[in-house]
Structure formats: C-alpha cells, structure tokens
Write a structure and sequence with these properties.
- The chain has about 150 residues and is an all-alpha fold.
- The protein has one domain (about 1-25, about 55-150): Butyryl-CoA Dehydrogenase, subunit A, domain 3 (Up-down Bundle).
- The protein is about 65% helix and about 0% strand.
- The chain has helices at about 1-5, 10-25, 55-65, 70-85, 90-100, 110-125, 125-150.
- Helix 2 (about 10-25) crosses helix 3 (about 55-65), helix 2 packs across helix 4 and helix 4 (about 70-85) packs across helix 6 (about 110-125).
- The radius of gyration is 19 Å and the shape is globular.
- It starts with a helix and ends with a helix.
C-alpha cells in the first residue's frame, strides 16, 4: 500500500485501513464452524505476544455505507487495494476483466485518487442521503439486469 499513501490523506488512509481490518475479521456466515476450532491446547509452543489492534466497528460501518454509494469501479479499486492488498498491476488486471474497459496499470493511481475523493464526499454527506444514493444505485443495477434479460 505504499502507492496509496502518497496521495491519500492520513485520516482517510487510517479509516480505510480500519475498514479493511474490520472487513477481513468480520465473521463469515457462509459455513458452519467446526467444534474442534474451539479447542485450546494446554501446551504453549510460542510465547504470547501483543494482540493486534481491534478495528473500530462503528467507523468501519460508516465507511462501508459510504462505499456503497460510490460507483463500482471506485469501490472495487479501494476494496482491492485495502482489503485484498493488491498492487497496481493486479488491480489493473482485475478492473480490466471485471469492467471490460481498457484500463492500464498507469491508470490505477488516478482511479484510486478519484475513488478517495468520491469516498470523502460520500462520508461528508449525511447517512440518510448515503442510504438514498445506495438504494438508487441498487435500483439502477436491478433495472439494467432486467432490461438485459428482456432483450
């Protein structure tokens, strides 16, 4: 994430890192956990170290709701950078494949910078407006899908 830190202000970077940490530790409800996973051996093979800093859930939820209101290309760019920890080359490759647009590796920093500007704008809007924009976006996606199926 070295490239992202150069043009993202530190407060937004901190919030995005917190959101990514929260997203990676958010419990997954897709599988049932094993009962053996709760077993703790009485033997200790390594010394206990300091625990990692816990993510701030409220702030992560706020960033998550703001991310829902921005366009898919920008949402995906930030998600790949912070949650998947990908470099510019990997992000460009996935954006090309998913969006079917001619995006090069050199375009990724500009897209990421625009994503940060849009995210800051979305974060500055009240939560009710963000929710309204997110609903509009979902309705547009559903309508586009239904229109494509009708054709």
């Amino acid at each position: 994430m070295v490239a992202a830190e150069s043009y993202v202000d530190s407060s937004l970077h901190h919030r995005l890192v917190n959101w990514a940490r929260w997203s990676r530790t958010f419990p997954s409800f897709t599988r049932t956990s094993s009962i053996e996973g709760n077993y703790r051996s009485p033997q200790h093979w390594w010394p206990e170290g300091p625990k990692p800093e816990q993510p701030e859930a409220n702030d992560a939820w706020e960033v998550c709701s703001a991310m829902a209101a921005i366009a898919l290309r920008y949402h995906l760019t930030l998600k790949l950078r912070y949650i998947a920890r990908m470099d510019d080359r990997g992000i460009g490759r996935l954006l090309r494949r998913e969006l079917r647009e001619p995006i090069t590796t050199k375009d990724v920093p500009a897209i990421e910078g625009m994503a940060c500007v849009l995210l800051l704008e979305s974060l500055s809007a009240p939560a009710v407006i963000r929710r309204f924009r997110a609903r509009e976006r979902v309705n547009r996606i559903i309508n586009a899908t239904l229109d494509a199926q009708r054709d």
